[in-house]
């Protein structure tokens, strides 16, 4: 799945929140990621992804994408603009 | 209670963690604060503080103090040094 | 300085922000703390506190207190309520 | 670019950090995002992406992907596992 497909996929799967609520939700997910990292809960073969670093890292990715959707931001376009800016600076 | 008393009070009440685990714990508490802010769960008269902005804000304060303890940092001394630095700059 | 004195001290020293801006400011300070922890910039004798773990940890404390002020929350009262709740649970 | 291509793209473009340093870097980027959101600095036509919500949101995405790389986690696989878990629960 491309980043753009992920943005529409997530806006289809989830109730959209406002900008502020989306940022707060991102911080909730980062907090849950911090906990499973601290407890070192990792995904084991044939076991549920629930409550693992793997789950929470994807949840943080998902909330970043949902925040981009709330701001109507195209992350693929941002990647290209940022890398063009970096490449010019590093020439 | 002074900030210094709070630092020894918390080190007496809680199992000390290492620097890295203390920072991760701070992020957990910030995540829980973000959730109760998003859900606007506030303390009501004669009700438990559990699961409210009031509880989670104190928990963030507590984890900041525990992180200072992990780094052996005196927050009262930092306050004075920072304000001396600011006052000189704003003269 | 007590926690209550710190709350009025900071509201006297700094322009008050709204609830949302105060939470965003807390996250800015946590980000700056993460950077100096990652770079391990620590306070050295007779040197400025600027850009050190000591400075940024106090800045996080300050922004937690400013957020409490924005919500009109008495952190000393929250400490007592939370500890009474904990002590009852651990009896 | 797919999520998997983004993971290898970023590991090719950037010096890999350890797990702990990658989490701290994520928090730095979240802090910078909080600042530009608070200041409402948005990308304007024909202007640099530098110091905008657009730039910092992509930087947070990039640091989430770099953190996944540090943990050797395949985010596309996590997406599928999480959605299978959710779909079973919501049946």
UniProtKB/TrEMBL annotation, chains A, B, C, D:
TM region positions: none
Pfam families with a match to the protein in the record: MazG
Domain NTP pyrophosphohydrolase MazG-like: 24-85
Residues forming coiled coils: none
InterPro entries per the UniProt record, alphabetical: MazG-like_dom
PANTHER family, per the entry: NUCLEOTIDE PYROPHOSPHOHYDROLASE, REGULATORY PROTEIN FOR BETA-LACTAMASE
Record protein name field: NTP pyrophosphohydrolase MazG-like domain-containing protein
């Amino acid at each position: 799945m491309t980043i753009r497909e992920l943005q529409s996929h997530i806006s289809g799967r989830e109730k959209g929140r406002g900008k502020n609520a989306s940022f707060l939700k991102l911080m909730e997910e980062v907090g849950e990621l911090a906990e499973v990292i601290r407890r070192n809960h990792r995904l084991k073969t044939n076991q549920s992804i629930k409550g693992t670093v793997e789950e929470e890292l994807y949840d943080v990715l998902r909330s970043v994408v949902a925040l981009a959707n709330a701001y109507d931001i195209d992350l693929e376009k941002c990647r290209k603009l940022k890398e063009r800016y970096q490449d010019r600076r590093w020439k």
